[in-house]
């Protein structure tokens, strides 16, 4: 497998839409009628040796796999050598062609695409820290859990990798196709299936955007509080265990998923649990799939918790002379238990970038800035604002601004939501933005931000720092020329220095972007080889042919430790 930096080998996708016109036409017809590079091993592979499908049931496959794994481990242990699983063998070009034929027979010609622009769009991302050199072989557009189950059976038959795809907004090549295979795009599975307002939960499909979900349920007086980038969809949010600006009060994705419907590699369909908020029945299967990036199963439905909309929400913006002053204020607010809903930090570079991009309709003070949301009762919000003002003044705050109405709140908060887009808008032709995230215990956040910012300046890199300071997670967005080897080397150094610095502070290599292709080596440093081996064991038991999003989180063995480290 070869990896490339964004736009070094694969050009920027030429198609802005995620689905070709014929696929969209097919989807429109369907919706209107339903209103509610091969290896030697691959070249030598033969699908005719597989037992007939009627014989090779999922239950028999699991039993035979378990027996074979146990026998192999026992023999290896008896001989005094560690058991080493064989390298995954994927289908040949001919196998993949047969799979595509079967998929078209299953889903219809218009629901399977091999068009170049579709493959490019689903296999490459200008947002990603890196991209695989290969593109997917085909794209399938299922419309139901049963469709996904049948797709998985076909892919298992022909040993074709499967890559789930919802919003395509991830940043660590989480949906890339390093081994080719089939991308499963849930574009048509984007509905609210059921809502239980009296139980404060909702059942959704994977390709609904979180903002669209909140729009559809707003009349219930409830909302779903996890709020990453606007383009994020529920499937990818589950896959990466993402969070957003509300994390300081409402937590991350794992805190809001009640159960999942999941298609396993062999096409089996499972539900991780039932619908009560509380259970102590068996393993936490829901938690196993949240954050697994599609490597253990394909999520087709999710039951999510909802929470009441607060009585009042106010937005505030406070500027400081230094990044440490801003970060220290945030830490003191947390220690004092001030009930903020959101607490975000942006450095002076980021504020200047927002001014230059001009997307917010106003000029901002070019200083390190904290953005707040306060929510709750009217009296409670007023108390929180007073406490925040006092603490900010004690930390040399330069200016205060608090929204008086909803329009002012929207205008103030727009700067935070425009941050990454503003950086991308300032790119010169040929330049890229490397966005990375690290999380640390909240007490160490002022230290890691200050040290990392100094290194960025010392290395002469144009970069901004921003993040969810309330839960110890910060981001760096670094602009660079990928064709300048010296500059690229400096960027890689500062990114992995940030990660190592975070690990030294007992932090994590990623707070919300996920591991994907980009941070496999960093994950190994974070948890150690023994923990990675346990993760591998879980994957092998559920996906013995290594077909589900292969190459992500960790490699099949230790021969490939991932880029960067």
From TrEMBL:
PANTHER family: D-LACTATE DEHYDROGENASE (PTHR11748), D-LACTATE DEHYDROGENASE, MITOCHONDRIAL-RELATED (PTHR11748:SF111). The keyword Transit peptide applies. Its cofactor is FAD. SUPFAM superfamilies: FAD-binding/transporter-associated domain-like, FAD-linked oxidases, C-terminal domain. Residues 132-309 form the FAD-binding PCMH-type domain. Residues 30-52 are annotated as: Disordered. Its main location: mitochondrion. One of its GO terms (cellular component) is mitochondrion. Belongs to the FAD-binding oxidoreductase/transferase type 4 family. This is D-lactate dehydrogenase (cytochrome). It holds the Pfam family FAD_binding_4. One of its GO terms (molecular function) is D-lactate dehydrogenase (NAD+) activity. Keywords: FAD, Flavoprotein, Mitochondrion, Oxidoreductase, Transit peptide. GO terms for biological process: lactate catabolic process. It comes from the Eukaryota. Its EC number is 1.1.2.4. It catalyses: (R)-lactate + 2 Fe(III)-[cytochrome c] = 2 Fe(II)-[cytochrome c] + pyruvate + 2 H(+). It is found in: Mitochondrion. InterPro entries: FAD-bd_oxidored_4_C (IPR004113), FAD-bd_PCMH (IPR016166), FAD-bd_PCMH-like_sf (IPR036318), FAD-bd_PCMH_sub2 (IPR016169), FAD-linked_Oxase-like_C (IPR016164), Oxid_FAD_bind_N (IPR006094), Vanillyl_alc_oxidase_C-sub2 (IPR016171).
């Amino acid at each position: 497998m070869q990896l490339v930096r964004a736009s070094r080998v694969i050009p920027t996708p030429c198609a802005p839409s995620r689905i070709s016109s014929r696929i969209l036409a097919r989807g429109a017809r369907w919706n209107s009628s339903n209103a509610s590079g091969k290896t030697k091993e691959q070249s030598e592979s033969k699908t005719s040796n597989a037992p007939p499908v009627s014989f090779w049931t999922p239950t028999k496959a699991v039993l035979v796999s378990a027996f074979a794994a146990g026998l192999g481990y026992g023999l290896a242990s008896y001989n005094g050598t560690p058991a080493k699983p064989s390298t995954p063998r994927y289908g040949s070009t001919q196998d993949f062609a047969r799979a595509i034929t079967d998929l078209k027979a299953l889903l219809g010609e218009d629901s399977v695409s091999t068009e170049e622009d579709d493959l490019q769009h689903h296999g490459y991302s200008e947002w990603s820290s890196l991209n695989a050199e290969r593109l997917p072989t085909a794209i399938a557009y299922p419309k139901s859990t049963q469709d996904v189950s049948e797709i998985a059976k076909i892919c298992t038959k022909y040993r074709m990798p499967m890559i789930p795809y919802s919003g395509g907004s991830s940043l660590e090549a989480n949906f890339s196709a390093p081994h080719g295979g089939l991308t499963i795009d849930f574009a048509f599975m984007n509905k609210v299936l059921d809502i239980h307002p009296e139980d404060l939960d909702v059942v959704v499909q994977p390709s609904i955007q979180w903002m669209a979900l909140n729009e559809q349920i707003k009349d219930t007086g409830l909302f779903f509080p996890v709020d990453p980038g606007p383009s994020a969809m529920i499937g990818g949010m589950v896959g990466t265990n993402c969070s957003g600006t509300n994390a300081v009060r409402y937590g991350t994705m794992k805190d809001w998923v009640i159960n999942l419907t999941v298609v396993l590699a062999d096409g089996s369909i499972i539900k991780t649990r039932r619908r009560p908020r509380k259970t102590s029945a068996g393993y936490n299967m829901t938690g196993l799939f949240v954050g697994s990036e599609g490597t253990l199963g394909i999520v087709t439905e999710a039951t999510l918790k909802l929470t009441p909309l607060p009585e009042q929400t106010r937005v505030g913006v406070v500027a400081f002379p230094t990044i440490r002053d801003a970060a220290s204020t945030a830490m003191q607010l947390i220690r004092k238990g001030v009930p903020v809903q959101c607490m975000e930090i942006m450095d002076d570079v980021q504020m200047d970038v927002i001014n230059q991009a001009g997307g917010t309709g106003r000029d901002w003070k070019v200083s390190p800035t904290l953005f707040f949301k306060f929510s709750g009762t009217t009296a409670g919000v007023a108390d929180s604002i007073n406490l925040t003002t006092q603490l900010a003044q004690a930390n040399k705050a330069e200016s205060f601004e608090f929204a008086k109405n909803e329009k002012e709140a929207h205008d103030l908060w727009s700067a935070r939501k425009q941050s990454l887009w503003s950086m991308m808008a300032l790119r010169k032709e040929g330049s890229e933005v490397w966005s990375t995230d690290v999380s640390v215990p909240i007490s160490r956040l002022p230290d890691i931000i200050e040290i990392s910012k100094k290194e960025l300046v010392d290395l002469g890199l144009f970069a901004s720092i921003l993040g969810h300071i309330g839960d110890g997670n910060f981001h760096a967005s670094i602009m660079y020329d990928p064709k300048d080897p010296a500059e690229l080397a400096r960027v890689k150094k500062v990114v992995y220095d940030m990660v190592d610095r975070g690990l030294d502070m007992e932090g994590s290599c990623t707070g919300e972007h996920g591991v994907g292709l980009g941070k496999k080596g960093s994950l190994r440093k974070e948890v150690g080889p023994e923990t990675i081996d346990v993760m591998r064991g879980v994957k092998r038991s559920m996906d013995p042919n290594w077909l589900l999003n292969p190459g992500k989180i960790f490699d099949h063995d230790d021969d490939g430790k991932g880029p960067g480290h």
